[in-house]
Specification:
Elements lengths: L3 E4 L5 H12 L3 E6 L3 H13 L4 E5 L5 H15 L4 E4 L15 H26 L8 E6 L3 H4 L6 H21 L4 E8 L6 H4 L5 H5 L11 H12 L10 E4 L4
Parallel strand pairs: 1-2, 1-4, 2-3, 4-5, 5-6, 6-7
Helix pairs in contact: 1-9, 3-4, 4-6
Length: 248
């Protein structure tokens, strides 16, 4: 039977690129998304047409009940889980700290941090040999913002990704002896719609001169790092944060 990968936030961007590459490598897929049903279903049809077994499930990962339902759907469809890619994440419009209210902070930490914790928890319950599982791999999407801080843009998002780095380091140690590897990927400036969501579609153009490789990255270049960490080729790698940032 194919290995099963759950990718949160798979309707577009890095999540969708990861789904395409994972399908090409033979994984069966659970594609989670929050609201872009049409995009997720179009991707699902495309993958199914090329022979991949897949489902698409709407769930806001910041909401515990919705996460529980997402994993119930996964259990019903596949009865196993080999890889979780904690990719769902969001940005709010660029702002300084003085303009950040609690509602914004709850949205940013909810989707990026609480969502990753809840999905990791449900994955560990299914993968850990302590709970009768067969082991597995978790890949968390952090960001170079965790190191750079994103001043005047979104230090809330940067801090949330800092929490993802700590989750990766701590959980990797917690479950290492139970057959689960946990790693993180820290993308730099990647060509997706997330920058428009932050209010500046041309952000990469403005900042690309600060990238030693001189350009933004493509979602596929991040997907390849995710797939490597997810697979057996990375069998001795856990608790690692892999920067995919053109040297920035
Ligand atoms: P994107 O194009 O904005 O896509 C984000 C995806 O996450 C969408 O599929 C979205 O679903 C989903 N999502 C957002 N909030 C969600 C929630 N609460 N529950 C479930 N799904 C949710 O972003 P991206 O650029 O591909 O980024 C993917 C990951 O990489 C994120 O964690 C991001 O922080 C990280 N990252 C990106 C960059 C970059 O330059 N692009 C750099 C560093 C890190 P809907 O479309 O259905 O809402």
């Amino acid at each position: 039977m194919s290995k099963v990968m759950l990718i949160t936030g798979a309707s577009r961007g890095i999540g969708a690129a990861t789904a395409r590459l994972a399908a090409a490598q033979g994984y069966a897929l659970c594609l989670n998304y929050r609201e872009r049903r049409e995009a997720a279903e179009a991707l699902l049809r495309q993958l199914e047409a090329s022979g991949t077994e897949a489902i698409a499930v709407a769930a806001d990962v910041a909401d515990e009940e919705q996460v529980m339902r997402l994993f119930e759907r996964l259990d019903q469809a596949f009865g196993r889980l080999d890889v979780l890619v904690n990719n769902a994440g969001l940005l709010e419009p660029q702002a300084r700290l003085e303009q950040m209210d609690a509602a914004r902070l709850q949205r940013v930490f909810g989707a990026n941090v609480i969502g990753s914790f809840l999905c990791a928890r449900e994955a560990v319950k299914r993968m850990s040999t302590r709970h009768g599982g067969q082991g597995g791999a978790i890949v968390n999407l952090s960001s170079m913002a965790a190191r750079l801080g994103a001043p005047n843009e979104y230090i809330d998002y940067a801090a949330a990704k800092g929490a993802i780095d700590s989750l990766t380091i701590g959980l990797a140690k917690e479950v290492a002896a139970e057959g689960i590897r946990v790693n993180g990927v820290r993308p730099g400036l990647i060509h997706t719609d997330i920058h428009a969501s932050g209010g500046e579609p041309g952000r990469i153009e403005r900042l690309k001169s600060s990238v030693p490789l001189g350009r933004g990255g493509d979602p596929e270049e991040v997907a390849r790092a995710i797939l490597w960490l997810a697979g057996d080729e990375a069998s001795y790698t856990t608790g690692t944060l892999l920067d995919v940032s053109g040297g920035r």
